[in-house]
Amino acid sequence: MVAIITDEAAPDESVPAQATEGEVRRFDGAIHLWLLAGSVLVIVLAATMKVHEVHEVRLPGTWFSLPELCYFRRATGLDCPGCGLTRSFISLAHGQLLAAWHFNPAGVLLFPVVLFQIPYRLAQLLRVGRGHRPWNLTTVAQGVFIALFVVLIVQWVAKFLPAW
């Protein structure tokens, strides 16, 4: 077995310390494949679903609405920071920017991040498949996700502030 040395300061705890290069490549490939599949699924579902009467989401060709899944809203009667993201994604996939903004402004920022995952994960799979190390965008990704989290919370708090 060969010890893998990375450029990171701390070892990656999800990969065994004594992994072979092939094992590390398979692990990296599996992660990118799952993230690619998840991103494609989200985009395809957003493109095929429909928003019905503002608060309902329907699958194509069906007459019934999907159940509401937000337990926070069920328990408190208030929207959570993520309420409306599904409807926002659906609206964006159908080119309805204003409707998407109305459902959840953070969706307008998050949807492109999910969309970006498709070419990025494909490129990562190609790199790993050719024996190259995947790109390490950890710092960038952390910054993007922190910014998205802040936007989610700010827009949520803004909903409860009285209009000036």
From TrEMBL:
Q: Which residues cross the membrane?
A: 31-49, 97-120, 140-158
Assigned keywords, A-Z: Membrane, Transmembrane, Transmembrane helix
Question: Highest lineage ranks of the organism?
Answer: Bacteria, Pseudomonadati, Planctomycetota, Planctomycetia, Pirellulales
Q: State the organism of origin.
A: Anatilimnocola aggregata
* One Pfam family cited in the UniProt record for this chain: DUF2752
| Protein name in UniProt | DUF2752 domain-containing protein
